[in-house]
Amino acid sequence: MQCLICRARLATTLLVTIAVVAQPVYAAGGGQTKFKRISTQYIAALGNPAATSGIGAQSWGLWPLDPGPRGVKLTRYLSLKDAGGVAPARWKFDETDWWLEEHGLIMEQPTVPLPPGKYVVTGARKVTAVLTIHPADSHGERRWDLDRGATLYDVTHLACRSARYTPATVGGSCSPANAKQTAFPVAPGGAMPPVDGCTKQDYAVLIVIGVGVED
To answer: What is the DSSP letter of 162?
Structure first.
């Protein structure tokens, strides 16, 4: 099954975390944030896996829909190119900035930056936590932090592998045609494979099951 999420495991996680989503979180200013369940979304995150907070969230992204089923197989890349880069799911491929997932599916780009707010996130393992993305400061920097002592690794869905590929040199070619199909699927927690002519950036994938609503 070529998609980012094992839905059976995710369904179990959602049942377990209903109570967590419903609990209000009190802010330092005395107000509180309530949470509402949403259709599952996905965050592409960068950071130290052992960290509970950090900076750089302005480079994080959000997939409002599961990009796996909307992806295009590497073996269909030429067809995608012949279609002007328009995928069957109607997203547009960018040959200078493209993404792959663990099965070798070319994915649509996430929306960057991730909007500030509070997100209930999980790795579909043992930990569910509230992720806070803070508004940008005067330098455009956005901080992030997780509650309950959770680390970024704790809320990373290890079965989901995701990487962004861009040309290694200015004006150079970075094509999915150069990806080795024998490198897929990628093992849970493993690094995505390099592609000739490309610079690769691996991203952690977080499952979003709720968002904060100010009371």
So the answer is: E
